[in-house]
Write a structure and sequence with these properties.
The structure is a single chain. The chain is α/β, with parallel strands linked by helices and 323 residues long. Helices cover 36% and strands 24% of the residues. α1 packs across α10 and α10 packs antiparallel against α11. The radius of gyration is 19 Å and the shape is globular.
Amino acid sequence: MKKIDVICIGAALVDIVAKVERHPLEDDEVFVSDLYMVSGGAAANTAIACSTFGLNTAFIGKLGFDDEFGKKILEDFSINSVNTHFIKFSRKFKTGSAYIALNTDADRRIYAHSGAANHLSKEDIIEDELINSKIIFLSSLRNIKPFIIAGKIGKKNKIPVFLNPGMLIIDQGYNEIKDLLERTDILILSEREYKKLTESTEIPYRQNQSIEKNRKLWDLGIKIIIITLGKKGALLLSEKQCYLVKPIKVECISDTTGAGDAFSAGFIYGFLQNLSLEFNNLIKNVKLGNYAAAKCIQKLGARKGIPTKNEIEFYIRELNKKV
C-alpha cells in the first residue's frame, strides 16, 4: 500500500452560503443577492487543498448514510483525488451542514450543524488505518474523543500529530481538552483561539513573553505553536525561539472562508518536504501556509482559490532562491 502523506480527521459538511450587503441587526431582515451550495468543513477543506498540492491525502469523518449532502461530499472528494476508504457512515444522523452569511466586506457569520460529523466515535478511529500515514491532522470537531484516540495512535507510532482546533474545541476550555493537547505535536491557532486558550489579552511577540505565557502548553509536550494573525501574518513559536512571518499582501479580498484551512495545508506541504522541526525549515513552511491562505481569500468559497501544485512548487523555488 502506498504511504499516505496526510490523513485529515474531522468534519465534512455542506456549506450553504448567502451573499448579503450587510449582516442583520436584532429583529432585522436582509436581502440575499446570491445563494449557493458547496462542500466544506475545516478538515475536509484542508484535505482537498493537500490533495490539490499533489499530496497523497485521505480523510476520516462521518457522513449520513446515502443522503444527498453526503453524496455531494463524496463526489467532490473523488474529483479531487482524496482517499475516502476510511470514511464512516451513520444511519441515525444526516450529513452536517453550515449556513454562512457573507457581506460585501468579506465578513462572515457561520452557523454550523455538525450532524453525523460530530458522532464520529473513538471506535471509528482504527490504528491500522492511521499507521500508514506520515502526518495525522485533526481539525475543528466538537467531539474530541476520536481525536484523543488518533493522537494516542500518532504518539505510539511516532507519527506527527497536528491540531487546528477551531473554536468548537477551544470553547470547551483548557482542562477539558488537556488530554488532546498532550497528544499534539504542532498546534495551529487563530489569534482569537490562542487568546481564549491561554486566557491572554495579547500575543507573545517576544521570546521571553512566549516562554511565560505558553509554559502550560510546552509542559504538555507540544513542540510548535503557530498563531495565524490574518493581515499581520503568522507567529511561529518553539520553546526556545519566536518569529513573526510577514503576510503576503492581497489587493482584493473576496472571502476569508477557509483561509485557516488553506494555511494548514500549505504548512503541511512544506513540512512533508523534510519532516523537520528545525526552526528555519518551519519558517519556510509558515510562508507556504501564508501563500496558500493569501491565494484562497481572493476567490469566493474555501476551495476555489486554492493554489495549484505548479503554483506551490514555483513559490517554493522562489523561497529557495532567497535562502
